[in-house]
Amino acid sequence: DVRGLTQATAIKLAQHKITVNAYRPGSLETQLADSCIEQMAAYGNVLKEEIYKGCSPKIPLEHIAKPDEIASFVSYLASEESNYTTGQSDIINGGFSVLIILRNNFYFIVKR
After folding, report:
1. How many CB atoms lie within 10 A of CB 37?
2. Structural domain tally of the chain?
3. DSSP state for residue 85 in the 8-state scheme
4. What is the pTM of this model?
5. Would 110 be classed as within a structural domain?
């Protein structure tokens, strides 16, 4: 998995003062995501906006991330400020993964 690969590579490259980190974003407002939402809406015979509206409350921070919100974190990892950070695999999803852990089973349902 990504976390194991990140940790193993970080240990291997630490002697060369190379840091290795990964990030795992959750839902993002992108053209690809929008295309998927459009397909879900068509399949469920609902408006695309209703799908977005239904997804946001399921995320503790109550919105789907904008690319800039992820980019600032990636920028930090690529900067000199993160020189002491290595072997990390951070999940950036507005707290959604916490819900999965707490609830164990979590499903999206498209209602007609």
Report:
1. 19
2. 1
3. -
4. 0.70
5. no
